[in-house]
Amino acid sequence: MYYKLAPSVLAADFTKLGEELRAVDEAGAQYIHLDVMDGAFVPSISFGMPVLAGIREATDRVFDVHMMVEEPGRYVEDMRRCGADILTVHAEACTHLDRVVNQIKEGGMRVGVALNPATPISALDCILGNVDMVLIMTVNPGFGGQRFIPYTLDKIRSLRRRIEEQGLSVDIEVDGGISPATVRPVLEAGANVFVAGSAVFGQDPAARTREFLEIFKEYER
Ligand code: DX5
Ligand code: ZN
Q1: Cα–Cα dist 6/85, whole Å
Q2: Is 25 a catalytic residue?
Q3: The domain spanning residue 163 has which CATH number?
Q4: What is the mean predicted confidence (pLDDT) over 166-180?
Q5: Is the pTM value of this prediction over 0.90?
Q6: Are the C-beta atoms of residues 34 and 60 closer than 8 Å to each other?
Q7: DSSP 32
Q8: Nearest to 184 by CA among 153, 210, 139, 144
Q9: Burial of 14: CB neighbours in 10 Å, binned 0-12, 13-18, 19+
Q10: Stretch 114-133: mean pLDDT, rounded?
């Protein structure tokens, strides 16, 4: 199993964003996680296309775009143009999830489907074989710095089991309240892509990144 760290830009210092991105990039973070919020699907509004396009210039790490937006199918082409490598949409936000998943694939991006904490993994029954990644939200989406919700561990475990039973190769990403102190049980439950905002940015993002990567190495051995 491989493990990837996806520092969430939402928690970065926007007055020195280039510097912060360089720090996590050089320290070895494989993905950069970008939270797009519309003020409707979630209460907050974060950033959109011009900011993404700007950040794209600053790093060539994998762009992991998390759409917390109603009917994200409307923005698939915009996200492709901004350089998204993985585009993740919420099952709860898509009236026609199958169509959106196919749109993303046709755009040449990897596709992720996200589930809020209270959405059961059965919501993926019909679509699991057609996605590259499932994002299990481990907090209610909308804000950084929240506390990890423990019952999501069971969802991660049963999803990993299901993926294995079906012989699929699907990444499980987790997002919310992930830190060096909370990451081990989540990894042991079967997650392999870890979003971390406040645990990476704030104080010494490069050192925090290395701390996560050291933990991953213990499990990769
Ligand atoms: C929350 C966002 C997260 C957020 C995570 O809705 O999707 O990506 O930045 O922040 P932390 O790691 O601080 O919980
Ligand atoms: Zn996110």
Answers
A1: 13
A2: no
A3: 3.20.20.70
A4: 98
A5: yes
A6: no
A7: E
A8: 153
A9: exposed
A10: 98
Identity at 108, one-letter amino acid code: G
Q: How many domains does the chain have?
A: 1
Neighbours of ion ligand 2 (CB under 5 A): 35, 66, 175
Ligand 1 interacting residues, C-beta cut-off 6 A: 8, 10-11, 33, 35, 66, 139, 141-146, 175-178, 195-199
Residue 19 token pair = 């510097």
Predicted confidence band at 18 (pLDDT cuts at 50, 70, 90)?
very high
d(CA 175, CA 56): 21
Dist. CA 115–CA 93, nearest whole Å: 10
Contact assessment for residue 196 and residue 182, using Cβ atoms and an 8 Å cutoff: no
Mean pLDDT of the chain: 97
d(Cα 162, Cα 91) in Å, to the nearest integer?
Answer: 18
Domain with 86 in it? 4-219
Q: Which residue stretches of 166-204 are H helix?
A: 183-189
Select from 84, 79, 109 the least CA-distant residue to 32: 84
**154 catalytic, yes or no?**
no
Residue 124 token pair:
């993926």
